Amino acid sequence: MAIERSLILVKPDAVVKGNITAILNRFESQGLKLVACRMLKMDEKLARIHYEAHVDKPFFPGLLTYITSAPIVAAIFEGEDAVARCRAIMGPTNPANAPEGTIRKDFGENIERNAVHGSDSVESAKREISIYFTPDVIQEY
Ligand code: UDP
Ligand code: MG
Question: 79 CB contacts (<8 Å, ≥6 apart)?
Answer without folding.
Answer: 3, 4, 31, 32, 33, 85
